[in-house]
Design goal:
The structure holds two protein chains of two kinds. Chain A is an all-alpha fold. Chain A is about 80% helix and about 0% strand. Chain B is largely without helices or strands. The chains are: A mainly alpha, B little secondary structure.
């Protein structure tokens, strides 16, 4: 398993796998198979893939710990950047066909529709993470600060799910499905944080049961 | 009544040459071209003539969002979104929505003297 995870070919293979959704959409576009409302189709498809890649990215750390596979870390940056890549496509389908590249219309819409507000926020939060994803930036910021900054992905993932939940009219099963996955991945982190704090906390000698009041 | 008597108003039992499916308002739906895309009367089971303005489904569910008339009016925003632009099937970019879906000449007279911001 270790050999597979550390091989450079695995990284190439994962990269190509991550491009399949894009190729599938291009193929559909070329063959006129994007349905009656192609713009909406592209928006929904790219939106789905953002949430999937965010879930994949967030799953790396728990999987590393649970299955003792530290080498999985090699794929985290790539998966996160693919989430950002599909987020850029998603955003393009919004500012282009929906807003006709008109910034003032876009700002009005962001203020008007709450689901756009949270979706836009989720996207904006990903931008600094994508920029500082390089090894150089990790060094410049220092591991601790870099990690703090990159915890913004938790907020982004939650907002992404809210964005989806507010968008659908009645069938909330898919947003709830992504919501559950994100919740599990975040709760796992919270639980492991609690247990780490417990084990690090100095053992306290039980105080005598006398209270002094006065 | 004036709206129903307008020559543009029609009752429909089909769509694209086939029987109207349930989700599109079977057995009979009303098509008022100047309201199309906002809220339409669907699944008509009976027609009653009343003295007073009757309650309507969407108006009862969300009175601050849906008025009685449900006219397409690009100048009046829905509280949660705008209806100033639309995308037509087969087009990529949105285009400005016309007052009464472009049927202003035929139907604007029905609402003479009404404040369309109040009677939306």
């Amino acid at each position: 398993m270790r050999r597979i995870l550390t091989s450079k070919w695995t990284k190439v293979a994962v990269f190509l796998l991550c491009l399949i959704p894009l190729l599938e959409l291009l193929n559909r576009a070329l063959h006129n198979r994007l349905g009656a409302n192609p713009v909406e189709f592209l928006q929904h498809a790219t939106g789905d893939w953002i949430l999937r890649f965010l879930v994949f990215t967030l799953a790396i750390t728990p999987l590393r710990k649970l299955f003792n596979l530290p080498d999985l870390i090699r794929f985290r940056r790539m998966l996160g950047l693919f989430a950002f890549f599909y987020a850029c496509l998603h955003f393009l389908t919004y500012i282009g066909p929906d807003q006709s590249f008109d910034p003032s219309a876009m700002w009005k819409d962001i203020a008007k529709r709450p689901f756009i507000t949270v979706g836009f926020t989720a996207f904006v939060l990903l931008i600094p993470l994508a920029i500082t994803s390089t090894t150089g930036w990790i060094r410049r910021l220092g591991g601790k600060r870099w990690q703090m900054l990159h915890r913004a992905i938790y907020v982004s993932a939650v907002l992404g799910v809210v964005h989806y939940y507010w968008l659908v009219k009645s069938d909330v099963r898919k947003p709830l499905f992504y919501g559950t996955l994100v919740a599990i991945l975040l709760l796992w982190r919270f639980a492991s944080w609690i247990s780490r704090r417990r084990s690090q906390a100095p053992v306290r000698v039980a105080a005598p049961g006398v209270s002094i009041s006065g | 009544m004036d709206e129903a008597m307008n020559p543009l108003a029609l009752l429909s039992v089909g769509m694209y040459g086939e029987t109207l499916p349930n989700q599109d308002g079977a057995p009979v739906r009303m098509v008022l071209p100047w309201k199309y895309g906002f809220k339409s009367v669907k699944s008509i089971a009976k027609i009653k003539f009343q003295q007073k303005m009757p309650p309507t489904t969407w108006n009862r569910l969300a009175p601050n969002e849906y008025g009685f008339y449900s006219n397409v009016n690009p100048g009046v925003d829905h509280p949660r979104w705008t209806q100033s632009k639309e995308r037509r099937l087969g087009e990529i970019f949105k285009r400005p929505t016309l007052m009464f879906n472009g049927y202003a000449d035929q139907v604007a007279g029905l609402y003479n003297g009404m404040d369309l911001k109040k009677n939306y």
